[in-house]
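## retry 2 of 3
previous attempt timed out at serialization; input unchanged, resubmitting
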Amino acid sequence: MEVCYQLPVLPLDRPVPKHVLSRRGAISFSSSSSLFGAPDPRQLAQRRGAISYDSSDQTALYIRMLGNVYVIVIHSFGILIGACVIFKQLFSRDVRVRSQVGFEPERRGSHPYLGVDFRTLHSHAESAGSIPARRIRRLFSFQRHLLSSRFLRGAPHLNPLHILDEDYCGQAKCMLEKVGSWNFDIFLFDRLTNGNSLVTLTLYLLSHYGLIELFQLDMVKVHRFLVLVQEDYHNHNPYHNAVHAADVTQAMHCYLKEPKLAKSLTSCDILLGLLAAATHDLDHPGVNQPFLIKTNHYLAALYRNTSVLENHHWRSAVGLLRETELFSHLPAEDRLNMERQLGSLILATDISRQNEYLSKFRTHLDQEDLCLGNASHRHFILQMALKCADICNPCRPWELSKQWSEKVTEEFFHQGDIEKKHKLEVSPLCDSENNSIADVQIGFMTYVVEPLFAEWARFSDTRLSQTMLGHLCLNKASWNAMQPEASGSSEEPESEPEPSSRALPQGSPQS
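## retry succeeded, writing output
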């Protein structure tokens, strides 16, 4: 089994430990080092990183930057030159570069297609001329992210940035004041935070609920954990990316504010709910479970073809919790219990178990036996809330819902194109020649979303529930109007059908 060693995540003011350097070939560096020019207070002082490789076989190169590598490259040309020399030397020895947490494509028994890195599965080739502009955008992105982190901590602006950055920061702060609104535009918020929507939003909510003080969490560890979570989402995925995770986290916050939950949930419940929402699709490869199974991917074998992606999301989240030692100050039993409950919440998002959870929810509501004073009942409601948050896109206002629909369908169709290319059976809803966005969305709304949110409205009959159902009805009508020959094929089924494989698209890795 091939192993790609990883340097531990370090606080920003610590160098790479000597024991790490002694057991593998490694080069550590700092942007503030005199070797790379005089430091600038407006640059990333004390931002450290490392390049390392397994000294036993020198086949796995690992890079960790505690910060934004593009920012450092722009500001410190010495790093760029040094990195080029390092890479040239390593490549001359036929060293294979691997992504930080990417899927390893050369496992035995895998389909030949898996030689493609999932992290670049949905990426598009860019011209060489666009690279400097992209790096500049990432520079401003990280500068604004640092500024937003300061105002969340209440720190003064010692080194004010450009007026434009202040303007972006101010708009993002104004949006956070309305984070409980169902009309919250996560796409706009992501632009204002320059790609850091998941970190900024989750950090704000943890502070809003007083969880950082209550659980005595180290702010450095919290921020490091959230940054790693955000980085572990594949932002080249049209749909299953960090913005989707931020959207689900915001929806989860809306549900946690509902009267029945607000007066019953404990602080531990809220913490688990927010963490589960933020990590529920962690390291999603942009393809669904059937694709992993038919290509003999090692994850399918590892989890025996059962909730493959959900298990991977959960284990990835636990790995980051342990790597950052976020809960290291808690008793071991409490840490393990939180990890198990986090897994239970994330596993509930498996759409193939939709009927199981929906039937249980309906039975509780029919018998009126839900008691939120009972810990197991509260946990079940958290599971249902996360399931609703995960597939709530059709219940958003049309302008937001339409964007999500286009993104998830793009991801499906891209998978279908790959399956055709490699002569694999095309997965349901992934054939762009036989499906349209309207087809996919109408089926999804009818068979999956409507039954779930109808039961949620029975449980929590509030203005928010009625708003969601109203948007769902209007959005479905809009997609129906877009269908060709809609008048002859828009009849609603008289009775609720069982969800089929055709109706498992949006917001779920199983689709």
